[in-house]
Amino acid sequence: MQLKNHLNFLGDRNKQEITFHLSGAINKNVVVGVDDFDKVWSYLVLLSKQHTEADILQWKENYHVTDAELCGIHSFLVTQGMVYLSDSSVKNIRLANFMGNWVSSTTYGDLNSIMSSKHVVILGAGTVGSSLIDYLLQFDVQNFTIIDGDTVMAKNIPHQRNYVPTEIGMYKCDIAKEHILQVNPNCHVDIYKQFLNTTDEFLSCICNMIPTSLAESTTGLPLQMFQFICLVTPSEDMFVASDCLLNLYKISRIFRITPNILSAKTPVSAFWATYPPCL
Predict the structure, then answer these.
(1) What does the pLDDT read at residue 173?
(2) Where does the chain have alpha helices with state H?
(3) Which one of 183, 189, 231, 238 is most buried, by most CB atoms within 10 A?
């Protein structure tokens, strides 16, 4: 049994209370009142780090805890989503912690595979799009489609990620693809070197990404093939297009992202807090 340290446990001995973040909620905590603060808090501290059965037996002896009482404590911890019962093989610990803040699970790291199966379409590989690519790589997303007809200019270098002076004149899509594969060679990346300004152009491009048989089978299916579609272009026309698509296809996984959402201090948390992941 392992305490979910990422839920930010706080203890108040004077109030005899323990507070922690509620999985799947934004800015919502659970407050638990306890009769013996030192006993309960010391057990949580024990579960928060590597421990053995001997450590638990020593704790039981120190605080005169019976087997029945310990069973009740364990039941409460599991019911409240405060602990993991087992570990999976976790390479990306930060992703495991973050996903654990959003979805309650009893196996540490078992949610990481959710993100690797997602397919993300990014329209625009400029200031926001290039940053978003890095954030998605941190989330272990491995399937990308990047659409941008622009090339790197000198003015892009100071504020757009992964572009350097020697790449001026090159297509941003080409550079973005190379960067993604350098970070994770297991990724699959499709690029389209074109500008999209209308809903029709967007739909036409999406339809070209999937087999014709699927595109013709059901109205709206092309968009449903992708878990996330991120519109990161500052074009007002595309903002209108995204609203039209939401109305036409009723798809909640289309996100319109503007630069102010991805703040310098908390870029990832700001993005997910505004648009919680569709799992």
Answers:
(1) 92
(2) 37-47, 53-63, 67-79, 93-102, 112-116, 127-138, 172-183, 199-207, 212-217, 221-224, 236-249, 267-274
(3) 231
Can you tell me the distance from the alpha carbon of 71 to that of 78, in angstroms, rounded to the nearest whole number?
A: 11
Is-contact 173 161, C-beta < 8 A?
no
- The answer for residues whose C-beta is within 8 angstroms of residue 56's C-beta and 6 or more apart is 46, 70
The per-residue pLDDT for range 95-119, each reduced to its tens digit, is 888 878 877 888 888 877 777 877 7
Tell which residue, 52, 232, 14, has the closest CA to residue 135. Answer: 232
DSSP assignment, residue 103? S
**Which tokens hold the place of 139?**
């989330």
Q: Which residue has the tokens 């405060």?
A: 82
Q: Checking phi first, is residue 131 left (phi over 0); if not, alpha (psi -120 to 50) or beta?
A: alpha
Please tell me the pTM assigned to this model: 0.62
Asked whether the beta carbons of 154 and 120 are under 8 A apart, the reply is no
**More confident of the two residues 175 and 134:** 175
Tokens representing residue 269 in the block: 């948390």
